[in-house]
Design brief:
The protein has 91 residues and is mainly α. 82% of the residues lie in helices and 0% in strands. It has one domain. InterPro entries: MrpF/PhaF-like (IPR007208).
Length: 91
């Protein structure tokens, strides 16, 4: 069976758009005026990576990767809470 190119499917284009917007968010992480901007940018990129992993898991029919994306999403949520607590104490 011949696999079709990733950019033929709408999911492939979605992955490409998510990757490009994640690349744009690196500007917010590097040049963000405050620490909160950098944290929000990092959390947004991590969430986009979770969605990319989930889409690629469905395309490649490797459903174990969905478990990986769920774990990454939980780590992202806990990390955001820890950083928010750090920022609260810093002030």
């Amino acid at each position: 069976m011949v696999k079709e190119s990733l950019l033929v499917t709408p999911f492939g284009w979605g992955v490409l758009v998510l990757m490009l917007t994640s690349l744009l968010l690196t500007y917010r992480i590097i040049r963000g005026p405050t620490l909160a901007d950098r944290i929000v940018g990092l959390n947004t990129i991590t969430t986009k990576v979770v969605v990319i992993i989930a889409i690629l898991a469905v395309i490649s029919e490797e459903y174990a990767l969905i478990d990986l994306s769920i774990v990454l999403l939980m780590v992202n949520a806990v990390g955001g809470l820890i950083l928010a607590k750090y920022m609260e104490v810093e002030r």
